[in-house]
Q: What sequence folds into this?
């Protein structure tokens, strides 16, 4: 499994995690791979996207060797479309639900928990991204209370929540605050190798009640999706 | 795993003081992560083992998660004697299974009253509030500072030791410093990158009226306590 080098047995139920990293550091790709694995393990996945339509995401995932289309057709992976409001709510074939106003975080909270309720325990809920929602949100205070409330609700529903947060897109204090309102953080970064190529790196910063490593792992592309290198990346 | 008593033992052993003085109000400061909560729960577990009452007020971890983590330190017996004030069920709009629960997270007066009620029966007990940052998320830093000053005085008046958790890197320096002088002592936690891994360091930065050794100790969940030398 993807997370094996970091944490044995994967993410525990009832946890909410902030996935923080700069743009283009593999956050979405990482989430999609986790979603696929959740489905392969007999769970469901719910993916809220503010950055792309569900069809585009499925196409992107396919480009990385992560086959989601079949799972989406069987409703094993459900998408909530928080993007299409920009283009006048054209119906996306893969959208199970839609958010018409991402700035209304109460509505987003209700929609996500309503869909999450119907999923099996241990299912994965992904919000990609909190930063996208926050662009339309009226103030930072609402984002904080939204994240806290959603994390607690998903925890009560015995699901796993992953909140994608763009690094450098917010004040550092806000990001630290959001991280403090959930139960763990995963960080990603981009590093330039000696040959000038860029490498994606990822690490588990903290997670309550779990034994995990805190070292950086490189995200490597494989034929079928992505994997984490076992060893430490170069400094 | 490092416990608060380790800090005390190491720091005060020559003077024969082996535990935090009763009724002390301590701030535990550190970046988001699990060390603060683990440290506080471990402290409560040790106190429960001595048959002293302990109360954990949570706004961040559900009572189930708190008890799960607690059982890593002391087993099921301790868990049944740990009192929890549930500050999470109000957010999820579900009835709480705990005796004490907050109705909401923005009315600090009511939160204060619930905490008073919960510690009424705990003479010489131990209280942990995890954490102040969540409360500041729902109201202003200034109101939380006032809240803490009143709470600390009342908790202390009952001879109850208080641990208050605060995230670093979220609040302005003025807020953190005001909180620091509102309490009797401060435990600081820092994360450092070492050989591509995270190392948590911890120290007792000050404790009112007592000369303390302020050197950093390495917090490691697997290895025994190691002294840092400067």
A:
């Amino acid at each position: 499994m993807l997370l094996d080098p970091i944490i044995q047995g994967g993410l525990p139920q009832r946890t909410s995690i902030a996935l923080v990293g700069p743009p283009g550091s593999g956050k979405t790709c990482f989430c999609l791979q986790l979603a696929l694995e959740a489905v392969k393990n007999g769970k469901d996945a719910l993916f809220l996207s503010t950055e792309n339509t569900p069809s585009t995401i499925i196409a992107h995932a396919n480009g990385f060797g992560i086959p989601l289309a079949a799972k989406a057709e069987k409703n094993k992976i459900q998408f909530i479309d928080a993007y299409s409001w920009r283009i006048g709510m054209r119906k996306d074939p893969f959208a199970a639900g839609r958010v018409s106003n991402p700035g209304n975080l109460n509505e987003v909270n209700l929609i996500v928990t309503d869909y999450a309720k119907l999923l099996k325990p241990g299912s994965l809920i992904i919000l990609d991204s909190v930063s996208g929602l926050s662009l339309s949100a009226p103030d930072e205070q609402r984002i904080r209370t939204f994240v806290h409330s959603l994390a607690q609700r998903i925890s009560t529903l015995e699901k796993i929540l992953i909140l994608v947060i763009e690094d450098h897109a917010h004040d550092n204090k806000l990001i630290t605050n959001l991280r403090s309102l959930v139960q763990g953080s995963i960080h990603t970064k981009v590093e330039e190798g000696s040959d000038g190529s860029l490498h994606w790196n990822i690490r588990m910063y903290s997670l309550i009640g779990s034994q995990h490593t805190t070292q950086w792992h490189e995200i490597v592309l494989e034929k079928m999706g992505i994997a984490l290198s076992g060893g430490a990346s170069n400094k | 795993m490092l416990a608060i008593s380790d800090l005390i033992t190491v720091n005060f052993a020559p003077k024969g003081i082996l535990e935090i003085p009763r009724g002390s109000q301590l701030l535990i400061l550190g970046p988001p992560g699990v060390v603060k909560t683990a440290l506080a729960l471990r402290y409560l577990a040790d106190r429960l083992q001595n048959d002293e009452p302990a109360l954990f007020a949570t706004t961040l971890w559900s009572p189930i998660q708190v008890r799960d983590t607690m059982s890593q330190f002391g087993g099921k017996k301790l868990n049944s004697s740990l009192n929890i004030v549930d500050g999470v069920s109000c957010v999820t709009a579900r009835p709480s299974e705990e005796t004490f629960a907050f109705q909401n997270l923005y009315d600090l007066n009511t939160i204060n009253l619930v905490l008073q009620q919960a510690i009424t029966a705990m003479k010489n007990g131990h209280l942990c509030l995890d954490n102040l940052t969540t409360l500041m998320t729902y109201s202003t830093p200034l109101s939380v500072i006032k809240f803490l000053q009143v709470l600390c005085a009342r908790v202390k008046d009952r001879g109850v030791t208080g641990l208050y958790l605060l995230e670093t890197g979220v609040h302005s320096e003025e807020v953190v410093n005001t909180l620091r002088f509102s309490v009797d002592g401060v435990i600081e936690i820092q994360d450092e990158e070492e050989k591509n891994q995270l190392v948590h360091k911890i120290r007792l930065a000050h404790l009112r009226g007592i000369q303390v050794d302020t050197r950093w100790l390495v917090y490691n969940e697997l290895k025994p306590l190691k002294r840092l030398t400067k």
